Amino acid sequence: MKDLGLIPEGYKILVTATVQEEDCDGLCWQYIHNEDKIKPEFVVSTEPTDGGIYRGHRGRMEIRVDVKGISCHGSAPERGDNAIYKMADILKDVEALNANGCEDKDAIKGLVKMLDPKFNPNHYEDARFLGRGTCTVSQIFFTSPSRCAVADSCSISIDRRMTAGETWESCLKEIEDLPACKKHGAKVSMYLYDRPAWTGLVYETECYFPTWINRETAGHVQAVADAHKALYGDKRIGSETAMNLRNRPLIDKWTFSTNGVAIQGRYGIPCVGFGPGAESQAHAPNEIIWKQDLVTCAAVYALVPSMYKGKGDEDVCQFRAGGTDTTSDKSAC
After folding, report:
1. Which residues form the Peptidase M20 dimerisation domain (predicted)?
2. pLDDT > 70: what percent of the chain?
3. Do 300 and 242 reside in the same domain of the chain?
4. 41 shares its domain with 141
5. CA-only gyration radius of the chain, Å
6. What is the pLDDT of residues 182-212, one digit of tens each?
């Protein structure tokens, strides 16, 4: 870009190659923001976008549920209190929370309720853009003296995907309020991340990754869109074998989560996505990327600074959940 004279005078372009995104989305950017004190005017994320330009995605959090029991010899299980049986009740309620509707007949109102203005009056339209929240049990643990004894504790991990209008507090309370959690006195908490980096540094953070959306009209979103339109037109392009998933609007959103949870979700730094590859290929067996995507993205990146007209007076943020220190009854925008 510099050699070709594609960086306008007064602009500085930073390229970051960061670690631990798969383990803890945005942790690297927490460090960049808090320790290196770097706050760019906007960020282009190069996560896969299927040839599209992405202006937001759902957030997520990692929840733990613990129940206690009383151990005894397996030959007389009635003398104990089996924690695994208690957790079995909770597992069914978690499944119902994800699968149920939100009609009066549903004792446990499903997460689809956030698409309904009755339950999410301020942000149901944003939720419909991003898609509904989800929850699934991802891990289960237990303790027992042996294979011939009653389990005295059981725990699960829940992967919770969050849409607009949901907060980290509301997601914890939803689990706490499940009938089986109340019945069995379950402890519900958010995980903390404290795994060391390759350098040995431990940079502890809660496992909460905020939801965010930019306005389609935001200057940085339009800079990427204008660059794409100038080079390739207003439709997604790609290899013939990639196009079955690309007949969608050019400007859209991710299904999965990215470092944008910190860049924009926590800190409000404008972020937009345009990257090679397909979301459906992420973590897939024999994952592939198309060479044409690499060329297309490199060309768009090179042109973006010349297309950027500045941030202007418009608030670029359409929805931002903010960090755990943000008042959570409204968007942090």
Report:
1. 56-178
2. 98
3. yes
4. no
5. 23
6. 999 999 999 999 999 999 999 999 999 999 9
Whole-structure pTM value: 0.92
pLDDT score for 313:
82
Q: In this structure, what are the phi and psi dihedrals at residue 81, rounded to the nearest 5 degrees?
A: -140, 100
Structure token digits, residue 282: 């992420």
Across all residues in the chain, what is the average pLDDT?
95
CATH of the domain at 129: 3.30.70.360
Q: At what angle do helices 219-232 and 291-307 cross, to 10 degrees?
A: 120
Tell me how far apart the alpha carbons of residues 110 and 125 are, in angstroms, rounded to a whole number. 18
Instruction: Find the domain containing 244 and state its range.
Output: 27-58+211-320
Asked if 160 and 50 touch (Cβ cutoff 8 Å), the reply is no
Residue 19 lies in a domain: no
Is residue 300 within 8 Å of 71, Cβ to Cβ? no
Is residue 328 over pLDDT 50? no
Q: What is the pLDDT at residue 22?
A: 87
Distance CA 183, CA 73 (A): 24
Domain harbouring 252, CATH code: 3.40.630.10
